[in-house]
Design goal:
Elements lengths: L3 H30 L9 H10 L7 H4 L7 H21 L1 H11 L3 H8 L7 H7 L6 E5 L2 E4 L4 E4 L11 H15 L12 H13 L3 E5 L2 H16 L3 E5 L23 E4 L4 H9 L3 E6 L28 H18 L2 E5 L11 H6 L5 E4 L10 E5 L1 H4 L2 E2 L2 E5 L10 H15 L1 H4 L5 H18 L4 E6 L2 E6 L9 H7 L2 E2 L8 E2 L6 H20 L11 H16 L3
Parallel strand pairs: 3-15, 5-6, 5-7, 7-8, 8-9
Antiparallel strand pairs: 1-2, 2-3, 4-10, 9-10, 11-12, 13-14, 14-16
Length: about 550
């Protein structure tokens, strides 16, 4: 009897511990199940794996037959590569020379030069196919480099260029004249700020505005305010989404320190909705609507284009339904829903993604599109989330400031932009945008299919990505054939084309003609050779074998 008392006490203690721990274990399992299965959904795992990947480069013999191609195919590729390289050296001589000189002191250039293609090929590509990173003029939808070469612009200034360079030049020129009287006075406001606020509130449907220096800063402030007003710690971001380069929203590769108050979950997932409904520590959900083109996928740069498994596709109806579900659960749970429209803002519709999808957010962030590329970030939000202090607790504040916020030259440029956006004649540019750009994508896809080229484009209106339909390790080479045909891409290559909305049918027809010509030349040079046994899975296995061999010195 005496021995049974301790046993009963232990049993009761075990039951109590189990009862206390079980809900936490269950919540943890549910959180893990809500992550996307890819590395984009597992930040910690992606960081660990990235540290294990060894650096190795192909010498010239292996460079052209890393997919197991026969000798005659490798020779054809090699001839095409060096022919293209000779063309680049002659055609882009001045641009290449200044880029090479400047790269020694510009860390951004050093990075982009190395990561334009998969690292195994980087050295030879950098040496022979560098086309230059400098431009001297823009006009309409074209750019002119230092050698006088004119390119159709498919880079779009990383999304900033919505209405064309001439439009923004005019905005900035007029802004300069209007701001000169006050000049670079900081701390005080130029009178135009008041008008900008009125227009931003009207467009966003929000109550208050906060100005910042960049889109990254705007997102940082939106998250900080959400945490301040909810009293909760964690933000939710979705696998693959980009929200700037600050730590909390970049928990995987690229961030030296892993954040501990970020949940990276799967987009368009019922399991994610369940986590949002059941957890009590979530302050806000960040949505970058650009992900509608490639849900749960990272930005599709050519540096990661190791095979042909990259796929995209925008389903407006399905993505709208997802956003409506998010809105519902965030309202139910008191979670702040933040639309990060730094990239897409004012491109899809005058009222941004809220208008385009018909789903209201609690806070919206905008970026440099508002000022023609000048440094600006904006947070528009409901008043209950925007206040930075508490009336009943004077020392409890949510601080945010910036020396150059509301700079007179930026604010007058913004006013020029917003004035035009409100004009009925100008706003007509939005009429039928989906039909126009979906039709153009179909037009190009039909041309590619008719010529039996293993390339396909998918699009979210005027933002496109290139897919490849035949397994290959060399798809990234297409960016250089496109450059030779006079098409300017950003450093991420064929992963993202960003058209300005002032592209005419004639402009687009010329782009399509050049795109097809580039793809045909690449096909002729046998980069898309496939004997039928080369699959995406086989390519990945070969790469894994190479990495293991170099890691263990075999």
């Amino acid at each position: 009897m005496e021995n049974s008392i301790p046993l009963l006490s232990l049993a009761a203690g075990a039951v109590a511990v189990t009862a206390a721990v079980a809900p936490k274990v269950k919540a943890r399992i549910e959180l893990s199940r809500a992550k996307h299965r890819s590395l984009a959904g597992h930040s910690k795992m992606s960081r660990r794996i990235s540290k294990l990947i060894p650096r190795y480069e192909f010498e010239i013999d292996d460079f052209f037959r890393s997919d197991g191609a026969p000798g005659d195919v490798a020779t054809r590729r090699q001839d095409g590569f060096f022919r293209l390289g000779a063309q680049f050296q002659e055609k882009f001589a001045k641009s290449r020379a200044l880029t090479s000189e400047a790269a020694a002191g510009i860390s951004d250039l050093q990075f982009t030069q190395v990561y334009r293609v998969p690292f195994q090929y980087s050295r030879l590509v950098k040496e022979h196919l560098g086309a230059g990173s400098f431009m001297q003029a823009s006009s309409g939808v074209t750019l002119t480099d230092l050698d006088g070469n004119v390119f159709y612009d498919l880079a779009g200034s990383y999304g900033v260029n919505i209405f064309g360079y001439d439009f923004y030049k005019e905005c900035i020129a007029n802004a300069d004249k209007r701001a000169q009287t006050l000049g670079p006075v900081l701390g005080f406001y130029h009178p135009v700020v008041a008008e900008n606020v009125k227009r931003l509130l009207e467009l966003s449907g929000m109550d208050e505005v906060s100005f910042h220096m960049s889109g990254t800063e705007a997102v940082m402030q939106a998250v900080r305010l959400a945490r301040y007003h909810t009293g909760r710690t964690h933000l939710v971001r979705f696998a693959g989404a980009y929200h700037g380069w600050w730590g909390d929203v970049q928990p995987g590769v690229g961030n030296p320190i892993a954040p501990h108050e970020t949940y990276t979950l799967a987009e368009m997932s019922e399991r994610t909705l369940h986590v949002l409904r059941t957890r009590r520590d979530i302050a806000c959900v960040l949505v970058n609507p650009l992900q509608g083109l490639h849900p749960n996928g990272n930005a599709p740069g050519d540096s990661a284009l190791v095979d042909s498994s990259r796929k995209g596709g925008f389903d407006r109806e399905a993505y709208t339904e997802w956003l409506k579900k998010l809105r519902e659960v965030c309202t139910e749970r008191g979670i702040v829903l933040i639309f990060d429209e730094v990239f897409l803002g004012f491109r899809l519709a005058p009222g941004g993604c809220q208008e385009y999808f018909g789903v209201p957010a609690d806070m919206v962030t905008y970026g440099k599109s508002l000022g023609g590329g000048l440094p600006i970030g904006v947070v528009c939000g409901k008043s209950r989330f925007m206040r930075r202090f508490r009336d009943d607790a004077p020392a409890d504040i949510c601080f945010a400031r910036g020396t150059f916020n509301s700079h007179p030259y930026v604010m007058t440029a913004m006013d020029e932009f917003l004035s035009r956006l409100k004009s009925p004649n100008f706003s007509a540019i939005y009429n039928g945008l989906d039909e126009t750009w979906n039709g153009r994508a179909k037009q190009l896809n039909d041309m590619l299919k008719a010529r039996d080229l293993p390339v396909h484009v998918s699009n979210l209106q005027s933002i496109w990505m290139v897919e490849y339909t035949t397994p290959s390790r060399y798809n990234w080479m297409l960016q250089y054939y496109l450059r030779a045909e006079g098409l300017a891409l950003s450093w991420v290559g064929t992963g993202r084309f960003i058209f300005s909305l002032n592209y005419t049918d004639a402009d687009f027809a010329e782009v399509s003609k050049r795109f097809v010509a580039a793809a045909e030349k690449m096909k002729q040079d046998r980069w898309w050779w496939n004997d039928g046994s080369l699959t995406n899975k086989a390519i990945k296995r070969k790469i894994l074998k190479e990495m293991l061999g170099h890691a263990f010195g075999r």
